[in-house]
TrEMBL record, chain A:
GO molecular function: catalytic activity; iron-sulfur cluster binding; metal ion binding
Source lineage: Bacteria, Pseudomonadati, Thermodesulfobacteriota, Desulfobacteria, Desulfobacterales
Radical SAM core domain span: 31-181
InterPro entries xrefs: Aldolase_TIM (IPR013785), Radical_SAM_PqqE_MftC-like (IPR050377), rSAM (IPR007197), rSAM_sf (IPR058240)
Annotated protein name in UniProt: Radical SAM protein
PANTHER family: PQQA PEPTIDE CYCLASE, RADICAL SAM DOMAIN PROTEIN
Organism: Desulfatitalea alkaliphila
Signal peptide: none
Keywords: Iron, Iron-sulfur, Metal-binding, S-adenosyl-L-methionine
Swiss-Prot/TrEMBL cofactor(s): [4Fe-4S] cluster
TrEMBL record, chain B:
Official protein name in the record: Phosphopantetheine-binding protein
Organism: Desulfatitalea alkaliphila
Domain of life: Bacteria
Gene3D superfamilies given in the database record: ACP-like
Domain Carrier, residue spans: 6-87
Listed InterPro entries: ACP-like_sf (IPR036736), PP-bd_ACP (IPR009081)
Length: 332, 91
């Protein structure tokens, strides 16, 4: 039988053992239906999810709900929206109870006296011109001022086809304010002209992402295998799609055969009763979905498939480490 | 000297067979499956694998493995002893 230690040397085996028993159980929560931006291509608004359910306004009900989520085994709350920082009391209800990650556009500063070590991911959609075009505002100017040098913050840089050849400038801007960055690709749910990926563009951006990781290893939190998966949409010869996606809400998952998936994962709407189908928009074409977390999870839940060779297992370890760093289960 | 095969030994082999079949483990048989090998650190099994096996064990032995107990069931022997003890206690 092929064993982990027979595939890895001492160094890699030690890395494997640091993550092998983390047993991360995440779920995603829409904290609010409201946002202080309206970005072109934001799946939440473009697919009408902001109208899927009325927000629960009673903080006590949020607290009771979170306690039940923990009883269900959730040990990582991923807060999205809308814009979660519009409802910091709800964010705090999560943060006080369990490991919590908060996605934000960075326009409202999360007060560190209330949330000293909460991991924050700031969305960024490109350079000043792209931000203004897609989001109506250069958010980096504000968010970088709010969070410069904060060790619990990184930029979640959504790369668009128009960013090809431009990513280094963004990465350097982020490095220069003392923050880290994780890269993902725009899925272009609203079909904004010129923002849908063509195959040759995906190949080019993969090389560029690899080059950024090589050039800025202390700033870029990523792995080349992740770049391969996200740009090709393939893993171990298998195409990504509905029948492979690991990030489908468990009670709504009636796929047969059942693929390997995140245990007990649910994406909750802000009424705390409605469940969304998956971690992103239900209207999205799964075959072209570029969701970064779903692709990372796809790798992570397929560990034994990566025990074919030393290189495959090392790739798996790097992706798992990347996820664990982004959600603060291991240090940077 | 005669080899004494206990109920627990038999159960270890039977559960090894179940694990090999359910998880499609290659290059191993129920007879060669080391009952003390660490299933997570060496075989690469994760909690979803264990949940898959737990479902079959529940049907086979009428014993439910609590999810909270997964972290301590790190070897084939520990899983077998867990099932064996629960069955014995219920008998």
């Amino acid at each position: 039988m092929k064993t982990v230690s027979s595939l890895l040397d001492e160094h890699w085996y030690a890395r494997y053992k640091k993550i092998s028993k983390l047993n991360i159980r995440s779920s995603i929560y829409d904290v609010t239906n409201r946002c202080n931006l309206r970005c072109k291509g934001c799946f939440f608004f473009s697919s009408g999810e902001h109208e899927a359910a009325p927000e629960e306004m009673d903080l006590h009900r949020w607290e009771t709900f979170i306690d039940k989520e923990m009883e269900r085994g959730v040990n990582l709350a991923i807060l999205i929206g809308g814009e979660p920082t519009l409802c910091l009391d709800r964010v705090e209800a999560f943060y006080k109870r369990l490991p919590t990650f908060c996605a934000t556009n960075g326009l409202i500063k999360v007060p560190r006296d209330r949330f000293p070590d909460m991991m924050i991911g700031i969305s960024l959609w490109g350079d000043e011109a792209a931000e203004k075009l897609l989001r109506g505002k250069d958010t980096f100017a504000v968010s970088s001022r709010h969070y410069a040098g904060d060790p619990y913050v990184y930029y979640l840089y959504t790369i668009t086809p128009r960013q090809i050849g431009q990513t280094e400038r963004i990465i350097r801007k982020i490095r220069d304010v003392g923050l880290k960055v994780h890269m993902q690709l725009l899925s272009n749910d609203e079909g904004v002209d010129g923002f849908s990926w063509q195959p040759e563009e995906l190949s080019t951006i993969r090389q560029e992402m690899d080059a950024m990781l090589d050039a800025y290893p202390d700033t870029v939190i990523s792995s080349k295998y992740y770049h391969e998966i996200i740009t090709t949409g393939r893993m171990l010869g298998r195409p990504f799609g509905w029948m492979e996606c690991p990030s489908v809400t468990q009670p709504l998952d009636h796929r047969n055969p059942q693929p390997r998936r995140l245990t007990n994962f649910i994406r909750w709407a802000s009424d705390l009763q409605t469940m969304h189908r998956c971690c992103t928009s239900e209207t999205r074409d799964c075959t072209t979905c570029k969701d970064g977390a779903a692709h990372m999870s796809w790798v992570m839940v397929n560990k034994r498939s990566h025990m074919r060779s030393t290189k495959d297992l090392q790739n798996w370890i790097e992706v798992y480490e990347m996820f664990a760093k982004l959600y603060q289960f291991i240090p940077w | 000297m005669a080899v004494v095969t206990t109920d627990l030994d038999r159960m270890i082999r039977d559960i090894a067979r179940i694990m090999i079949e359910e998880l499609k483990l290659e290059d191993v048989t129920a007879e060669t499956f080391d009952p003390d090998i660490d299933l997570v650190d060496e075989v690469g099994i994760d909690s979803m694998d264990l949940a898959t096996v737990a479902l079959v064990l529940r049907d086979q032995y009428a014993v439910r493995i609590d999810e909270d107990d997964y972290p301590k069931l790190t070897t084939l022997r520990l899983i077998s002893e867990y099932i064996y003890k629960k069955r014995t206690a219920e008998a």
